[in-house]
Each structure stands twice: as C-alpha cells, then as structure tokens.
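#help-structures
NK: newbie question, is this the right format to request a structure? protein is Amino acid transporter, transmembrane domain
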Amino acid sequence: MVEPPSMDPFPEHQRDEDAGAVFVLESKGEWWHAGFHLTTAIVGPTILTLPYAFRGLGWALGFFCLTVMGVVTFYSYSLMSKVLDHCEKQGRRHIRFRELASDVLGSGWMFYFVIFIQTAINTGVGIGAILLAGDCLKIMYSNLSPDGSLKLYHFIAMVTVVMILLSQLPTFHSLRHINFASLLLSLGYTFLVVGACIYAGLSKNAPPRDYSLEPEEAARVFSAFTSISIIAAIYGNGILPEIQATLAPPATGKMVKGLMMCYSVIFITFYSAAVSGYWVFGNKSESNILNSLMPDEGPALAPTWALGLAVIFVLLQLLAIGLVYSQVAYEIMEKQSADVKQGLFSKRNLIPRIILRTIYMIICGFFAAMLPFFGDINGVVGAIGFIPLDFILPMLLYNMTHKPSKSSLTYWINMSIIVVFTGTGLLGAFSSVRKLVLDVHKFKLFSSDVVD
C-alpha cells in the first residue's frame, strides 16, 4: 500500500532513496519536452470523438463548451504550475499530484483521493487507447477483407502485445522523442480527417445532414451533460505535476511555455476536427469519426489511401498516449518494488518492472476487449476523473497557497469555476453512467462492435 506523506511530504534527502522519483520521474527535461508530453497527454485520437460530442450539444452550445473548456483548462493548468513553482521556491518541490494536494490542503485523505482519481484516469485512458487502436485496425481490416473472420478483440490483443513491449521504456523523460513524433502525428491525422470530411461533404454521396437534438427534453439534457463530460475528458490531463517533474530544476516558468506550445496545437486540431466532422454527419456522427467515413455498408466516403494513412497515424500516436498515461501507475509500482541502490537495469529491478507493467497492460487490454464502450467510457472518465483534477483542485490549491483576497476577481473566478464544474461533474457522471446503463441491451461480452 502507498504510504501517505509525512509532515515534510517529500524531503530532499529521501529522493535519492525513492525509485519512483529517481527512475520514472527523473528531472532532466527542457520546456519544449514538457510541451511534447502535454500535447501527447491532451491532443490524441480522442479528438475524433468531438463530432460525436457535438451531436449532443448542437452547433452553438458545442462551440461554447469547446471554447469554455479550453479557456478554463489553460487557466487551470497555469494556476497548477504556479502552485508548483510557489512550493518549489519554499524548498518543497513536488513531483506528484497526490503529494502536492496533501501538502497544500493538509489532509491525509486527499493523498488517497488523488491516487484513486489518477488511477481511474490512467486505467480509463489506457482502456480507451487500446480499444480505439483495436477499432482502427478493425476498420482497416474490414475494408481490406469484408468477409474476414477476425473480431475486434483479436485486434485489441495485438495492440496489447505491442503496448506490453513499449511499456518497458523505463522513464518518463525517455519518451520525449516519441512524444515529439506524437505531436506531428496528431497534426497529420487531423489534416487527413478534416480533408476527408470536406471531400465527403462535397461529394455526390454526401450523407443527409440533420443537426437536430434529442426530441425529448430529459434525453436532450442527459445527452448534453454526457457530451460535456466527453469534452472535459478530451481536454483533460490529470498528470501535470508529474509532467512538470520531468523538467530540470528550477522548473519555474518552463511549464507555461510548454502549455503555449500545447494549446497552439489544440486550437488547430480540436476546432477543425469538430467542425468538419459534425458538418458532414450531424447527429449521425459516431464515437470514432473514421467509422462514419468508412461505413459498414457502402463505399468509403473519402479516398481510402487518405483514410488508411490517418488510421496508421492514429495507431502510432496511441502507443505514445498509452505510455504517457501509464507513467503514474509505473511510478507507484517502481516506488514499491524497485531498489535504487541496485540500478535501473539491474536484474533486481528489471524483472519486477517487466512483470508488473505487463500485468497492468494485460488488465487494460482485457477490459478494452470486454467492454467496447469507447464513447461512454470517455464520458465517465471525464466526469469522475478529469473534472475534479483539472477543473476543481487547481483553483482550490491556488487559493490555498497564494491566498488572493476574498474581494479580488481572481478569488471569485476560481470559486465560480469550482462551483460550476462540481455541479457539471456530478450531472455528467450521472448522465454518463445512465448512458452506460441504456447501452447494456446493445452490449455483449467481447463484442466485435464498439457501442456508440
């Protein structure tokens, strides 16, 4: 069991004995490395879900929520970085979200609360990444061999094997080159998918467009909150302190530069994918827009070479995303199982690392195959995971550390965000779980189709 922090949550003299810090969260990076990590953590193939999220909101509310979420998360991540910088200047450099929250809020239960939420995020993203990768492979396979016998879970197993092999990369910092490639891949498949959507929308085979929402008011409200939760998950990070931990000290100011890089890519990719996909398919958008572009019946709606290349780019980036979101789990494992004195690649540390990381990936792959609810999983993870860590805790931590005057604009902006997104998270969790329940009748274990 992970030990809660002491009064000095992470004293400098203990870091040399902490394998999670020394091995997984080694601090050697520059600001642009943090930008690569942030972009991989946020700008992923989940943007292919944005048209699906828009179908529960419509044009106006969809644009509004996408923009508000972007502004609030940038503000939130900036505040989180300032809190980390503040603690570092006081001689307490935190490299883990759970220790930062426990130290600032002075509560042992907060330590375990953050562990629980981060575990939910890591596992949820791991499951979603493997499921989406398997689904993309299935899409490509179905078009090449319509009568083939392979099922979705076969492709999920293939992806899981690859992830097991890549999971053995030992440190977060060692992913910097992979995550730079991930940034380029995200731009690549976004441009390809946007181009494919424009091609499909202007072709003679363009699908009929219907942007109407659910006819019943209650269903419309639930769909809207599910969509909001999905957008929150797409913007979510939940591991910013661990990313900032990879920066060579002093880390002050470096993370803001990384955030500027990340949000430049977000602006280009999020809006173009959401607008083009929803413009073509409207309320028939599927949870993976590639499924809409390559329907089960009839020909593909765009050149197959462009769609095939987009699928390849998506698959390659999913490997990086799976690695990034596994780092917190690996850090916890390493802290408990490794011995710093034996060295990173010693037999004593290598064998437990291989075994534990393999088991973790197998668990993610198993649940991805068993529960193919990609869109629904995104909503639940966003509501119970990303909203608390990215929309609530940063504001609370900033108010606790910097103590803005209760009459100041900053204080009231922070409190307003806390209240609004607490309510949004609760309603989003309820509506997302409700949709899971409603989808049960469509679902069977190890189905070969992803349920929308």
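mod (FA): yep, format's fine, and the tokens are attached above. The chain is about 70% helix and 0% strand.
NK: thank you!
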